[in-house]
Specification:
This protein is an alpha/beta fold. It has eleven helices and twelve strands. Strands 3, 4, 5, 6, 7, 10, 11 and 12 form an eight-stranded mixed β-sheet that branches. A two-stranded antiparallel ribbon has the order 1-2. Strands 8-9 form a two-stranded parallel sheet. The two termini are 18 Å apart. 33% of the residues are buried.
Length: 301
Amino acid sequence: MKNLYQLTTFVTVISEGSMTAAADKLYLTQPAVSQQIRNLEEDLGVELLVRGVRSIKATPQGEVLYEYAKKIIHLTQQAEIAIKSIGNQMKGQLRIGTLNSLGLHVMSPIVGRLMRHNPELTLKIDYDRGEELIKGYKKGQYDVLILPDVQTEFASELDSSEQKFLLKEEMWLVGSSKDEKMPQQIMVKDMGSFPLVDFTEEFPAFYSELHGKIQTQGAKVTSIFESSNVGTLKRVIEAGLGWGFLPAHSIKKQVRSGRLSRVYVKDMHYEIDLMFYYKKNSDSRALVEVFYQTLAQQEKG
């Protein structure tokens, strides 16, 4: 096994489900990703992937490597975050506002590690609707906002603020993998094939675009459940009560494990830039900068 870089590429191919998607996430060409996987297979003397027409799956040997590789990468990230955060002496309080779905899948993995290695650091994290978080930020209630691009998603502006790109998010349509009638791809006009489980409040621009297209296409859609809680929505969809759009980061684990099936909507692709906002003249600027670097480093894994 040659290096951590190859393991990271392999894990990304499995988690993204294709060479092309992995190449996009890693900012590599598709041939470069393929070559790294071939080199890894040659080094180990086994085939790691079953290469299908639409997707890629791990062989039994690949599944074993995938589980170990995730642990290796996770431990490496922990070490880097611990070393960098200790070296920068993270002290003081940070007040952070973000969405529930982002907090669970972006913030939660890093909070424990930061607190454990920085006993003089205090974090206060509030989950709320984007509009309410923006109001609170403008009143000085937060040092940091982690939100979708506020201009695009909430038609708002944050004056006297710096912004840094954190990661790309997509909205995926998913249904129960137990439903044999669940298609692999559809058009928006087919959205009425199953009841809709609606993800509301957190991404208003997406919600508006989706329902605008449904109306334009004349699809007769029955919405049977609405919530802004991703965990609740996943359980409803897994139970086979309907299908719905959810942030990709929150459901990739369930899609990989086969608990949820992703349905590709040919005429509805929605990407979101998740941004890190903070005040230009904040007294906590140095602490905020270090926090962003540790968070961004985690997302590169």
